[in-house]
Design goal:
Blueprint: H1 10-24, E1 28-30, H2 35-41, E2 57-59, H3 68-79, H4 86-93, H5 110-120, E3 127-131, E4 134-138, H6 144-157, H7 171-182, H8 186-190, H9 195-209, H10 213-217, H11 224-234
Antiparallel strand pairs: 1-2, 3-4
Length: about 240
């Protein structure tokens, strides 16, 4: 129906998801860097887990994705010189920057636009709901099958299909788990589980949360930008 007034993590979490999605679609990447040079430039501020946060995001391809929000974010990143870091882009796109000259980077009404997109796909519908002093537009679920399929996919990834190796997991599912946790919504997916399954699922989620993004990003066949986004939320 609507996202909680008290959840202030979703906005930045959604921007993180957009950066990951653009990276997985081959539109964004991290600037090539030499770890020794970066550490020499930032000797005091860096440790093993934070290096990827200092590397700039660059546009690898500006081919349209077909998604308005993703294309809007991609255009901002492509047109910005000098490039910004993952941490900076999350702050800029969510409007959390203190620099008034960069407020135009903010992606506005993201949750509402995403909800309308799901309405067009027949997943949600639109209603007015009265909240004492004011009416609020809500978007109740109409197609529960799609939601349950997604919830089941998340549950299975840490239960029946657990592989105990993040690099053998589907990158989107892995990112979804980590960013859903950072956005304080992951427990909703595990709430229906029996106690033993819930405890096991959360234990394995915490195994993923304890990974060191810097070390994981250095392994072969990985998406470095994805791990940089993870580092921005779990550092």
């Amino acid at each position: 129906g609507y996202t909680s007034f008290w959840n202030d993590c979703i906005s930045s979490g959604l921007r993180g998801c957009m950066l990951v999605e653009l990276a997985l679609r081959g539109r964004l990447t991290l600037e090539a860097y030499d770890s020794t040079d970066v550490r020499r430039l930032f000797p005091v501020m860096l440790n093993e887990t934070l290096l990827v946060l200092f590397v700039k995001v660059i546009c690898k391809s500006d081919a349209p994705t077909g998604d308005v929000l993703l294309d809007e974010a991609l255009k901002h990143i492509k047109d910005t010189q000098p490039p910004e870091t993952v941490q900076s882009w999350i702050e800029l796109l969510s409007g959390e920057t203190w620099n008034p000259l960069k407020l135009h980077y903010q992606l506005r009404n993201v949750r509402e636009r995403l909800a309308k997109n799901l309405v067009e796909k027949g997943v949600l519908t639109t209603e007015k709901q009265n909240f004492l002093l004011f009416d609020m537009t809500t978007h109740p679920l109409t197609n529960n099958t799609i939601k349950q399929r997604l919830v089941k996919k998340v549950q299975e990834s840490v239960l029946e299909k657990w592989v105990n190796d993040p690099h053998r997991m589907d990158k989107r599912v892995l990112s979804l788990i980590l960013l859903a946790h950072s956005s304080d919504v992951l427990e909703n997916a595990f709430a229906p589980l029996q106690d033993e399954q819930y405890d096991l699922g959360m234990k394995r989620v915490h195994t993923l949360l304890e990974l060191e993004p810097e070390k994981e990003s250095a392994k072969p066949n990985v998406n470095e930008l994805m791990w940089a986004v993870v580092a921005a939320f779990t550092k």
